[in-house]
Design goal:
The protein has 500 residues and is of the alpha+beta class. Strand 4 and strand 5 form a beta hairpin.
Length: 500
């Protein structure tokens, strides 16, 4: 069994086999000897040690024992100091033909606030990430700023909202599309650099002034912008958290607390409507997902912005966003199928004559069983089921009762003096697509009203979970002679006289 040695490299603790440790120690001694008399040599060695630690972690050195082959592969990636002089000689001979490593766009997870998009763009375009973040914030606030000065930004209004929504969507898309820089090679390619020590040597030599004590800190402008962005980030994060909790509370009230009518919430209303699907469970569940997930995302991102937390490796924000997108597509598909029966309507009418030998028509709205306990729904035009009454037979067993709309039209005698012959016309609109999904029995005129001598009897429509609302709209038109009187007795026995 080989002996192992525990060492500390760039602040990290690693366990190496004895021969791997000897090879690594020999390599570090070689670096010390080469950079001993070089300006900023200690900083170059420190950078190389950090690179070695990153490569060791990448190759599983944090959880296992590092073998000789691993150290050899890392040294092969970094190269030896003698190769620097050879590289510089070749560079001076063919500097015009030198091929730099190809720069690629990645998300920088080492310098991220949320997803590393801005820091990745900054590395790709060689711009401070603070500037990229500031540009994102300013562009997100463009429409708000312009509208405050009375200028409407038509560009963003044409694409469906404000600049904030556009930049938010752009950031999410870049977060999904742009890969993260996870390996050393990817982090170097993000800046268009190689992984060898010659690149670190060149960086230090080229930017030696930036490593001096006077240039190590950021410029005052960068610090000011960073502080400003930090304050803006905290403000936006707090706003996200408030909006998220507000949306969650309103959703709970809407889906679970608010009753559209007494004893009936919004999801329960669907049980009384004829739809193109039998099982409404998935329709209700997907509706909850589509409503609640965006507000959970706002809370999640708000916490990240306010408290500078790092995104967990399992990416909960991205997972929630993808689940939300899938739920939207699924709900759209299921919603279209549910509404398919109502895509095509059919208008129908029938009429019954009114006796011309009478001078008074008695109109009686037939009462229904339990009318004394029923609740009157005042607003006839609100909601999906335009019910007149709501009756609770037993706990949780509801019935909607609706009477046809009634309109009276008086007609004068004909020009030749002949009296006008009255009639009752029934007009209703139904949806023909329902026959494709249900065996719906057609309405009969006698189930809506009957006329016998001077008595017009009008019957209510009663909707339950078994006899569901099918979108019908029924209107009774009473075309009567001008001199005929109408006496209406409503469902509760109240008498109303419509004079001649």
């Amino acid at each position: 069994m080989k002996q192992v040695v525990k060492v500390s490299i760039a602040g990290g603790s690693f366990t190496l086999e004895s021969d791997a440790y000897q090879l690594l120690e020999s390599y570090l001694d070689e670096l010390d000897a080469y950079y001993k008399g070089v300006t900023d040599g200690s900083e170059i060695i420190s950078d190389i040690e950090e690179r070695i630690a990153e490569l060791l972690i990448e190759r599983g050195g944090k959880i296992g024992t590092i073998q000789l082959e691993t150290v050899s592969s890392i040294i092969a990636v970094l190269g030896h100091p003698a190769e620097i002089e050879l590289h510089e000689t070749e560079e001076s001979k063919s500097s015009a033909k030198e091929k730099r490593p190809v720069k690629k766009l990645y998300r920088d997870l080492k310098d991220r606030v949320v997803g590393g998009v801005c820091s990745g763009l900054g590395a790709y375009f060689s711009v401070d990430a603070v500037m990229i973040r500031l540009i994102f914030v300013l562009l997100a606030l463009v429409s708000t700023i312009m509208e405050s000065f009375g200028v409407r930004c038509s560009i963003f209004s044409n694409i469906g909202g404000s600049s904030f929504g556009f930049m938010f969507l752009l950031y999410i898309l870049l977060w999904i599309i742009v890969p993260a820089a996870k390996t050393v090679e990817q982090r170097c390619a993000m800046r268009g650099k190689g992984t060898g020590i010659d690149e670190m040597h060149k960086d230090v030599r080229t930017h030696s002034c930036s490593r001096s004590n006077s240039c190590q800190e950021r410029s005052r402008l960068s610090i000011a912008l960073g502080g400003l962005l930090g304050v803006i980030g905290i403000f936006i994060g707090a706003l996200f958290i408030l909006m998220g909790f507000g949306g969650l509370v309103s959703g709970m009230i809407l889906f679970m607390g608010i009753e559209i009518v007494d004893g009936l919430s919004l999801p329960a209303m669907l049980d009384y409507i004829e739809l193109g699907i039998d099982n409404l469970f998935w329709l209700k569940l997907l509706s909850l997902f589509v409503w609640f997930i965006p507000f959970l995302l706002l809370i999640y991102w708000g916490v990240l912005l306010c408290f500078k937390f790092k995104t967990p490796t399992w990416r909960p924000g991205l997972i929630m966003f993808l689940v939300w997108v899938v739920a939207i597509f699924a709900l759209t598909s299921l919603g279209i199928k549910s509404a398919t029966p109502y895509f095509d309507d059919t208008k129908w009418s029938d009429d019954r004559p009114v006796s011309s030998n009478i001078d008074t028509l008695y109109m009686n709205l037939q009462p229904f069983d339990g009318i004394g306990e029923a609740m009157v729904l005042k607003d006839r035009k609100s909601g999906i089921i335009c019910a007149d009454y709501l009756l609770e037979r037993n706990k949780g067993v509801l019935e909607f009762v609706k009477y046809p709309e009634i309109r009276i039209v008086k007609h004068s005698p004909n020009e030749d003096g002949e009296p006008y012959h009255g009639f009752v016309e029934c007009k209703y609109t139904t949806f023909s697509g329902l026959s494709l999904y249900r065996k719906c029995e057609p309405f009969t005129t006698d189930s809506i009203f009957t006329v016998k001598d001077s008595l017009l009897t009008i019957y209510p429509r009663i909707y339950t979970k078994e006899n569901k609302f099918r979108g019908e709209d029924i209107t009774l038109w009473l075309h009567l002679p001008a001199q005929m009187c109408v006496i209406k007795s409503d469902e509760r026995g109240k008498i109303t006289v419509y004079d001649k």
